[in-house]
Amino acid sequence: MARKKRNAGEVNAGSMADIAFLLLIFFLVTTTIASDKGLAIRLPPKQDPNEPPPEVKFNERNIFKVLLNSQDAMLVEGEPMDNTDQLKEKVKEFVLNYDRNPELSESPLDAVVSFKTDRGTGYEKFIEVYDELKGAYYEIYAAELGITAELVRNINDAEPSVQDRYDELRKKIPMQISIAEPSKTGGN
Amino acid sequence: MSKFKKKTSASQEIPTSALPDIIFMLLFFFMVTTVLRETDLLVLQRIPKAEQLSKLEKKSLVSYIYIGQPKETDRYGSEPKIQVNDVLIEPEGIVQFVNQEKDKLSEAERDQITMAMKVDKEAKMGIVSDVQQELRNANALKVLYTSVPEANVQM
Predict the structure, then answer these.
(1) Phi and psi of A177, rounded to 5°?
(2) A8: buried, middle or exposed (CB in 10 Å: 19+, 13-18, 0-12)?
(3) Residues of B with Cβ-Cβ distance to A124 under 8 angstroms
(4) What are B38-88's pLDDT values in tens digits?
(5) Degrees (nearest 5) of the Cα angle A27, A28, A31?
(6) Model confidence pLDDT, tens digit, residues A115-144
(7) What is the pLDDT of residue B155?
(8) How confident is residue A8, by pLDDT bands cut at 50, 70 and 90?
(9) What is the rounded distance in angstroms from the CA atom of residue A14 to the CA atom of residue A18?
(10) Is A38 in CB contact (< 8 Å) with chain B?
(11) CB contact under 8 A, B122 and A123
(12) Environment class of residue B34 by beta-carbon count within 10 Å: exposed (0-12), middle (13-18) or buried (19+)?
């Protein structure tokens, strides 16, 4: 009677991998890696109450006015504009005028884009317009540097030579978008 | 000649016994590195879309301010409110909040603090600008309007 030796005490580990895979896939799917992207902006520093606000001397021609009212209607340089399609082009034309057209800016250094909203303006519309304004500047930089606007926005990971040229360019064509305090219409 | 038939003793199978361990390692890695949202959102957050996005560089310097319509409208009303760290506050509380956040940072990084404003689409600019005025008072001048990338149609 040759007795068979039985292999006892072994757990079937083959399905362990499947279980682990299931868990892994679950985690992969449910994980949202918090990636924060957004429109960066630098607020002006607080005014010293003891000092009068600085005198601002601006030619009318050097200011590109964008107004948004509480009905989300847009007024660009005094003319109503229904959608933001042409805004970018207008801003580019205004900034890169170099004293050609007497209506537009004298030089990119003087050019200021003034963006004013009401208290009742919807935030979504505000972002849409601000996005276009920033986009115009980024496209100007991109055209000057000969790279895509995408690259300009993530310039921090670019090579140093491009970075230096970009810094030079920012000195020549500063991104001057001023967000004015909203007027007290249509909001609380 | 079957007497000299060579036996191939090398099996053609890859040992899979280590596979579960590898997968478990991956799993643990993900479990450990996953950051669950630690704040309970009390306000609606429908983030607007935009194209000209820039990334945040250092996570440690970022604090979040949520603005939107409260989810529990019967308790808080339907006007947009400001939320920081699990509580709804009035704009006057922003300065205190910023100072709390600044205290967590080292001396050198204090003025580098970035406020990520997560604002609901439906919110009005009024409340947003109130918060901004308070941020100016608190000397936290770097602000990021959090938005999600939109599908880029033009190249």
Answers:
(1) -110, 115
(2) exposed
(3) 48, 121-122
(4) 677 888 888 888 887 877 777 778 888 989 888 888 888 888 889 888 888
(5) 75
(6) 888 888 888 888 888 888 888 888 888 888
(7) 37
(8) low
(9) 8
(10) yes
(11) yes
(12) middle
Beta strands per DSSP E along B18-154: 49-50, 54-55, 62-68, 81-84, 87-89, 114-119, 142-146, 148-149
Residue of A25, A30, A27, A16 whose CA lies nearest to B32: A27
Residue with tokens 């399905």: A15
Greater model confidence, B105 or A17: B105
Place of tokens 């496209």: A139
Give me A153's structure tokens: 């926005």
> Residue range A145-151: average pLDDT?
74
The tens digit of pLDDT for each residue in B12-45 reads: 777 777 877 888 888 888 778 776 666 778 888 8
Which residue's entry shows tokens 């989810």?
B71
Q: How distant is the alpha carbon of residue A53 from its chain centre?
A: 28
Taken as a whole, chain B contains a residue count of 155
Q: What six digits make up the tokens of B1?
A: 């000649």
What residues contact B52, with CB distance under 8 A and at least 6 apart?
A39, A131, A134, A135, A138, A149, A153
Of chain A residues 130-149, which have a CB less than 8 A from chain B? 130-131, 134-135, 138, 149
Residue with tokens 């309007």: B145
Q: Collect contacts of A159-168 with beta carbons under 8 A, ≥24 apart.
A: A166/A141
Q: Which of B35, B123, B144 sits opposite A39 (nearest CB)?
A: B144
Q: Residue A183 forms beta bridges with which residues?
A: A118
Tokens of A104: 């537009």
The structure tokens listed for B136 are 């100016």
Can you read off the two tokens belonging to residue A130? 């601000």
